[in-house]
Amino acid sequence: MATPGTQPVTVVITCAIRPEKLDFARQALADVIREVRAREPSCRGIRVHAAADDPARWLIVEQWDSQALFSGPHMSQPHMQAFLKTAETFLQDPADFAFWHETLAA
């Protein structure tokens, strides 16, 4: 069994975007995802979903080598620090982060 914080993790982020900022938010997120994928090999993938009944409600699912790598080095990167400041301009409320470990795959 892996040491807590060192096994692969799925990060689930939910957030609400200000409707008038949807296009800006989409572009800012696309830009930072490009940076993350180019510079951070511990990121295994990022997918962004909009709610079927509300395009301003987003679900972001990220796969990382570990929670420790996500919470420490990733969140400390200059591109992430800049994005977090930018996100304050388009988020309705702070985003909600949850960490999940896969227990069964079909």
Report on the structure:
36% of the residues lie in helices and 31% in strands. By secondary structure, the chain is an alpha+beta fold. It has a four-stranded antiparallel beta sheet with strand order 2-3-1-4. β2 and β3 (54-64) form a beta hairpin. The longest helix is centred in the N-terminal third of the chain and has 18 residues, at 22-39. The protein is globular and about 40 Å long. The mean pLDDT is 95.
Which strand order do you get reading across the main beta sheet?
2-3-1-4
Beta percentage is 25-35%
How many beta-strand runs?
A: 4
Distance between the termini: 21 Å
Share of helix, binned: 25-40%
Count of helices? 3
Based on CA atoms alone, the radius of gyration comes out at: 14 Å
- Shape verdict: globular
What is the H-and-E element order? Answer: EHEEHHE
Q: Classify the secondary structure makeup into a structural class.
A: alpha+beta
Q: What number is the mean pLDDT?
A: 95
| Residue runs with pLDDT of under 50 for 5 or more positions | none
Largest sheet: 4 strands, antiparallel
